[in-house]
Each structure stands twice: as structure tokens, then as C-alpha cells.
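Order emerges. One example.
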Amino acid sequence: MSRRGVASAIAPVLVAALLGTACGGPRSGALGPAPTAAPPSVAPSNATPSSAPPSGRPDPTSTPPSDLPRAPTTTPPAPAGTTTPETVTVELWFVRAGQLVPTRRARPATVATSRLALTELAAGPTAAEAATGLTTLVPAGVEVTRITDGLATLRVPSADDPAQRRLREAQVVWTLTQFPTVRQVRVDGAAPVDRTDYADLLPPIVVTGPIPGERVSTPLVVTGTADVFEATVSVRVLDAAGREVATGFGTASCGSGCRGGYRVAVGWRTVREQKGTVEVYEVSARDGTRINTMAVPVLLAPGG
């Protein structure tokens, strides 16, 4: 074939490819420099990281948020329920303001992961997590008595307040169903339940990464699930003085009446390690203010 013939054959393919890339898919990106002047140790972020579409299924009530990609850190945690030669990482669901909030723990490896998870639930949040308002309603001594055909059976001490009892059960159910061997939970001989039975206890925005107190580096990929207006999730990073050093946005795989996974990449420039905060929020369709904000205290590694 002549060069002219080859060019004629390739041209339609290139046009089709360009049209294809202009369609569909969650959008995300950096919003550019912060609007405030940068302090001597901080320069506005000009990173323009891109965010890949969420890899999880749209409804996290059937897919544990632990299946979402994790934010990169200096020591990346293993996915929930998986083991390394030395440690196992488990996802724990605590309570804040009457809603379920996740975090993670890396602990010495064990085959009794369900027992480990329930022990950690009863132990309660770390100091960094407690500072964000996290607490636990699960008492010590709760253990799984049997796991058969994906059904975990256990007893949970009753609570005087029905709402408190439901939150306690929700903590247990959402924590145990992260493991592939547990699809449903039977509590005190009642009918089996799963995550969908307690999905109403999730806040509009759930952050699965980073976790409170985590040391994070740039670029940081913030992950979680959300049910927000037009599926748009916004992120900003604050330094130790409360100044914005990075902002970004992304779209969840589902939104405005349904819950979907999101990934938002942000980058910053700092010359020293310092405490910081990652805020994930929704922009109000009514007045443009930040609403449904989830603030995660972190340790910002130098970046630039």
C-alpha cells in the first residue's frame, strides 16, 4: 500500500479515537493554586494529577469500600483482610454523630481475622481518630461463634437505646463483611443481615483513605464513596496553619440519589513535614458553600 493509502486508512481511526476520548467517564483534576498567598514554606500547588475512574462497583453497600484503591503512603497498607508474612490489615467501622465511619489497622498476622477485627472494635479508636469524634459502641467479649456458608453467627450485648443498639450491630456487620468468608451476619438468633440493612447509617461522604493520623505524600489519592449532588466530590488540603495548599475534585461512579466510589488526586508543595488536614466535601447547589465535610487529620510529607 502507498503512503497516501496508509494515511487515508489511519485518518478515520484517529478521528474515532479522538471522539471516543471526549465522551463519558468520571472527571477529576486539580483546581490550581490556592486562593491565599503561600507562606515561606509553602508554595501553591500546580500539580495536575489525573484521577482514574473508580474500580469498585457503584453500590458500596454490596461491595466493601475496602475494595476501593488505597491512597499511596510511605508504607502502603494491604487491602482489608489480606495478609503479608508479618501483618494483616483490617477495616474497622466506628461511630461519629450517629453515623458509620471507617478506618484501618495493621496488626500482627493471624488466621482469626474476624476475632481480631472485633477485638479492635471493642478497643476503640486511636487518639488521632478519637480527636475527630470517632467512638465505638461495641463492648469487649463479642466473638463469632460460627461461620457457615458465608453466614457469621454471634451474640451482641443489648443496649438500652434502640438507636444505639442498631449502631452497635451496624459496626459489627460492616466490619465483618469486609472478609470474603462473610456475606451476612446473624445477631442473637435474628434474621441474617448484611450491609444494605444499615446503609442509611452512612454519611453522604465516606473517606476510606487517608485515615486519621496517617503520613501522606504527594500526589495523594483520596478515596471513598459518596452520595452527593451531581456526584461531584471536592477535596482540599490544609497545612498546619490552616492554609490551603492543594485543591481538587472528582466525580463518584454514581450520585444524586445513589452511592458510588470516587478517587481524587491532589498534590502540594511544602519544604517541611507538618501536621495537616484533608477535607472532603460537597459544594452546595444552593449557595456554593462547603457541606457534608469530612475532615481527616494527617501528617503532610514535604512535596513539590
